[in-house]
Amino acid sequence: MSGAKQFRAAVVIGYMLSITWLRRNLLSLVWLFATPFSLLFIITVTTGGRSFALGVIGSLLLVLSTVGTGLAGDATWYRLETKLQDFFVASPVNQLGYLLGIAFAGLFFASPALVVLLPLLVYIGLPLIFLPVVLLSLVGVWLFSSAIGYLVSTFTSNLRNGWQSGLLLSVLVESYPQSSTPPRFCPATFYW
Amino acid sequence: MNVIEAVSLSKIYHRSRTQALSDITLTIGRGEIFTLLGRNGAGKTTFLRIAATQLMPSKGRISVLGHDVRDEPLQIRSKIAVVPQEGSTIGPLTPWDHVYLTLLARGISRNQAHERSEKTIERLELTEYRNQPADSLSGGLKQRVRVAMAVATDAELIFLDEPTLGLDAVTRRRIWGVLNEIQKEGRSILLTTHYIDEAEILSNNVAIIDHGKMVLSGSPAELLRNVKERVRVDIVGSTFSEEELNNYGRVVKLAERFRVLTDDRLGRELADEALKRGSDVGLARVSLEDLFVDLVGRAEE
Q1: Closest by alpha carbon to A59, among A99, A5, A113?
Q2: pTM (two decimals)
Q3: ipTM surpasses 0.95
Q4: Half-sphere exposure of B207 toward its Cβ, with a 13 Å CA cutoff?
Q5: Could you tell me which of A47, B38, B71, B234 has the fewest CB atoms within 10 Å of its CB?
Q6: Which residues contact A47 (CB under 8 A, 6 or more apart)?
Q7: Between chains, do B54 and A16 touch, taking CB under 8 Å as contact?
Q8: Facing A90 at nearest CB: one of B54, B92, B102
Q9: Under an 8 A CB cutoff, do B105 and A101 touch?
Q10: At what angle do helices B95-105 and B110-123 cross, to 10 degrees?
Q11: What is the DSSP string of B220-235?
Q12: Residue B28: strand pairing partners
């Protein structure tokens, strides 16, 4: 298959594993919104609203890195339980098409939160000219965390370890660096 | 032309160091249903996964549809489809989603994918369930959905790894019917199973694999020539002693019954005698099952 068809395959796989799921399982939206918006709520409340902008950026990063590292569990599930990986390996979809597809699934899964957070970013004053830079950075975070998630899944031999690895990665990537950063590196608005 | 040619194919898994396949040489012709028959862990899935470009062989050579598995996997992948063993359907996706989206992912146009999905859903008698979430379907229906995902493609060669495992007799026969239809379209099928009746009814050719080695191969009729007896007589609630039965032929004890493998004349005589003595009796031609138990059981002993 040509490059364009591989990209189409990736989008279809992503759609298959996320949008169809979301449409028929609205409860997933609670988790999707709860994760980033809890962070936004805490940061906004604890800084008296002064760090709302940073909260929005943090929430965007959190939601993308969460779906990326979560791939450690999801990719294990596709490989060991549904055997979807075997199914697509023996098909015209190449490795990159499949990998991008399951990464897209995470991105599409995060789309409801992104639809709320991105306009919010513009609304609170991000100049539109910087939007492409922000989007590129977010894509970088999504790709990087998805790559880590997938890599870890390849070493996982059972499903429970897959989910556990995702949680561990989430702590290592999303919680540990922030919580271990010395306060002097934090923006002044964080001091109270 | 052959769709698969394997020469001295061997596989040793790194971690277990088990010889999963040892020196397998076989060919599968175009338009054929070829069955790998063996017990659990015999090496059937390993062979199938190598042929489907999912595993690398340790030794030997295998070409699929004219392409070497090691050197040209991409050319092979565009012409094959696989139903992996013991997979599952995906949560809330419907049978229609499974089939239609799989076809789109394989690069088939929307119109064609729509048409093929309709046809396959109907063919596997899934129309009634086409818009139901897979989670709510029975095990047999889920398996039919997985078979549909492969059957709906335009693949020249379809790999089915124990597609009827754990299914009821009616569902198994329904899947057999679909596989026969696919064969009539000129497509080839490599099937693994440990159901002997499935191998005997469906296949043009069968290879019996045990402990990674090919024990015997050929058409079911050719394989049966390896059994020297012609008929089997099953006697339930026997009033015969084992010694007495030994005079008629080879005796196999099966739970509460005796099976006697013998020739036509002695078989008929034994059946008549058993009826006279009031036993339940069954007289039938020897089957692949008798050969399989004989070959694999002997190796086990």
Answers
A1: A113
A2: 0.85
A3: no
A4: 23
A5: B71
A6: A55, A189, A190, A192
A7: no
A8: B54
A9: yes
A10: 140
A11: HHHHHTT-S--EEEEE
A12: B4
- Give the mutation candidate from B16, B50, B82, B135 for the A interface (greatest A CB count, under 10 A): B82
Q: What is the pLDDT of residues A4-53, one digit of tens each?
A: 999 999 999 999 999 998 888 888 888 778 888 888 888 888 888 878 88
Supply the DSSP symbol for B128. G
Q: Tokens for B268, please give them.
A: 């008929």
DSSP readout, chain A? Answer: --HHHHHHHHHHHHHHHTHHHHHH-TTHHHHHHHHHHHHHHHHHHHTTTTTHHHHHHHHHHHHHHHHHHTHHHHHHIIIIIS-HHHHHHTSS--HHHHHHHHHHHHHHHTHHHHHHHHHHHHHTT--GGGHHHHHHHHHHHHHHHHHHHHHHHHT--SHHHHHHHHHHHHIIIIIHHHHTS-GGGS-GGG--
Give the whole-angstrom CA distance, residue B296 versus residue A180.
63
Strands annotated E in chain B: 2-12, 19-29, 33-38, 59-64, 67-68, 80-83, 157-161, 188-193, 205-210, 213-218, 231-236, 250-254, 257-262, 280-285
B289: three-class secondary structure by DSSP? helix
State the DSSP string of B77-106.
HTTEEEE-TT----TT--HHHHHHHHHHHT
Contact status, residue B99 vs residue B148, Cβ threshold 8 Å: yes
Query: How far is Cα A77 from Cα A164, in angstroms, rounded to an integer?
Result: 12
- What is the Cα–Cα distance from A74 to A107, expressed in whole angstroms? 13
Give residue for tokens 């540990």: A176
Residue in chain A closest to B133 (alpha carbons) equals: A24
Q: Looking at CA atoms only, how far is residue B270 from chain A in angstroms?
A: 51
Residues 6+ apart with CB under 8 A from B71: none
Distance CA A92, CA B97 (A): 19
Neighbours of A61 (CB within 10 A): 20
Is B79 a residue whose pLDDT tops 60?
yes
Other CB atoms within a 10 A radius of the CB of residue A145 amount to 26
CB distance B251 to B242 below 8 Å: yes
